[in-house]
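re: the backbone from monday

yeah here it is again, tokenized this time
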């Protein structure tokens, strides 16, 4: 597995990260096996949220004996102090841990001012960081241009945004700015929520743009094995592959609309 520095956090994260949404749909024993397989194959970054059903509890159970091998990455809603406290407490409890390496502050442009204010969630995260409960504070939203504005405040050492070869808005402003500021970039929805099945090309596309890790949602051992294999052989795309991805993206955009980085079939109007 290839590892990359996540900007100024200093953390070395696997290029394939584990996205926790899909394991909420499967049984606990199976989910534990999936997470254990990910660890066995060198995946060290595990992303979840107390809002993803029982995903965090399943990850917590799987990593309990191997906590030091893992970098936990949790999303906490940040609009208010109360909400951030509730999410952070729930995450710690579900993950059965007393520390989380990366907490990403989930907030929208409209909520941002409130989230940074005295009753906003950022105060909760800063205090938890001071107490050693959180190591690094990041920010996440579906709008990469808002996240670009947010990192200019200097509060955030890493970001998580949607990015894939069909939805590449992050390339315009966010990624160049983040690289300049030393802010680590992680990509969510790297497979467009499962629509992009040319996994090797889709992930290599992400890694060639300065992104440290592609956080892929997985819910089977087969998916973990396939994605980990790709992360063990990171390769630059050939000009021909890039051209193929461009035409594939054009064709997908005729059938799907992009919503928050995920691809959803267009409704046919009658
Ligand atoms: N911070 C935020 O606001 C936020 C928001 C959304 C997501 N996220 C994080 O980002 C992660 C990734 O996003 P995502 O799960 O929405 O989308 P994604 O990673 O683009 O796609 C996940 C889907 O891809 C399919 N898949 C995975 N590996 C595959 C393989 N080797 N071959 C074929 N299909 C494969 C699976 O489909 P099947 O289920 O059909 O097997 C899976 O459900 C999430 O799990 C979550 O942790 C964060």
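seq for it, each position gets an aa:
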């Amino acid at each position: 597995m290839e590892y990359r520095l996540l900007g100024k956090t200093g953390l070395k994260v696997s290029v394939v990260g584990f996205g926790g949404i899909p394991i909420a749909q499967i049984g606990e024993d199976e989910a534990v096996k999936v997470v254990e397989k990910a660890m066995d194959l060198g995946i060290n970054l595990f992303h979840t949220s107390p809002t993803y059903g029982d995903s965090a509890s399943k990850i917590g159970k799987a990593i309990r004996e191997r906590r030091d091998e893992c970098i936990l990455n949790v999303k906490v809603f940040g609009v208010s102090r109360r909400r951030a406290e509730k999410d952070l407490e729930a995450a710690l409890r579900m993950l059965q841990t007393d520390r989380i390496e990366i907490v990403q502050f989930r907030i929208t442009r409209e909520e941002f001012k409130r989230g940074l204010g005295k009753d906003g969630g950022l105060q909760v995260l800063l205090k938890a960081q001071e107490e050693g409960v959180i190591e690094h504070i990041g920010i996440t939203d579906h709008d990469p241009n808002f996240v670009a504005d947010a990192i200019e405040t200097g509060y955030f050492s890493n970001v998580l945004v949607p990015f894939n070869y069909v939805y590449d808005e992050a390339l315009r402003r966010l990624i160049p700015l983040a690289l300049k500021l030393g802010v680590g970039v992680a990509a969510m929805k790297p497979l467009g929520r499962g629509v992009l099945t040319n996994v090797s090309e889709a992930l290599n596309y992400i890694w060639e743009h300065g992104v440290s890790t592609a956080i892929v949602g997985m819910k089977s051992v087969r998916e973990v094995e396939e994605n980990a294999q790709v992360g063990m052989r990171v390769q630059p795309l050939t000009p021909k592959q890039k051209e193929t991805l461009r035409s594939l993206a054009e064709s997908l955009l005729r059938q799907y609309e992009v919503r928050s980085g995920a691809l959803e079939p267009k409704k046919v109007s009658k």
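The chain has one domain: 3-265. Residues 19-22, 47, 75, 104, 106, 140, 160, 188-194, 197, 199, 215-219, 223, 226-227 surround NAP (CB under 6 Å).
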